[in-house]
Amino acid sequence: MPPRHTDDTIIPIDEKFIMGGSGIPYGTMLRGYQDNTVGPYRRYPLGGRVMMKYLTELRFPFSDNPTVYGLLFAEMGNNWLSFAEADPFDLKRSAGFGIRMFMPMLGMLGFDMGYGFDDIPFTEKSPEGWRFHVLFGMPL
Questions:
Q1: What are φ and ψ of residue 14, in 5° steps?
Q2: Are 30 and 24 in contact, with CB atoms under 8 Å apart?
Q3: In angstroms, how far is CA 16 from the centroid of its own chain?
Q4: For residues 17 and 53, what is the distance between their CA atoms, to the nearest angstrom?
Q5: For the chain, what is the mean pLDDT?
Q6: Is 38 within 8 Å of 122 (Cβ atoms)?
Q7: Which domains does the chain have, with CATH numbers?
Q8: I need a labelling partner for 42 at 20 to 30 A (CA). Which of 1, 81, 106, 133 fits?
Q9: What letter would DSSP give residue 63?
Q10: Nearest CA to 92 among 24, 41, 17, 20?
Q11: Rounded CA gap, 56 and 82, in Å?
């Protein structure tokens, strides 16, 4: 008999969805919010089993060699503990701008300013407001 899949199964924290900020060290990027604070949280991120994220980015090339470009972005997303709690209309929204540079020994390096439009209950800001993010590699 195959194993049952229920909500009380144990899923390691590194397999769950954690969202917010630049996504460093183990989350999913949602600029404009503090790192790893979007979604289920109790003094630490619980991680969710359901995630929804939308992202659009408009890039403006400044130089081909070395690669340098500016960007404008708009994002929205959230994660939940289970499908029963998931609400596709409860998404945290953000927008902002940034710059990317390709550094041969480091890879892609990015600096972003994002504005979080929605409240996160346990943080000090309401709404989140402007946040600065440093990115390494190619975020999705």
A1: -75, -5
A2: no
A3: 13
A4: 11
A5: 85
A6: no
A7: 13-136 (2.40.160.50)
A8: 133
A9: E
A10: 20
A11: 26
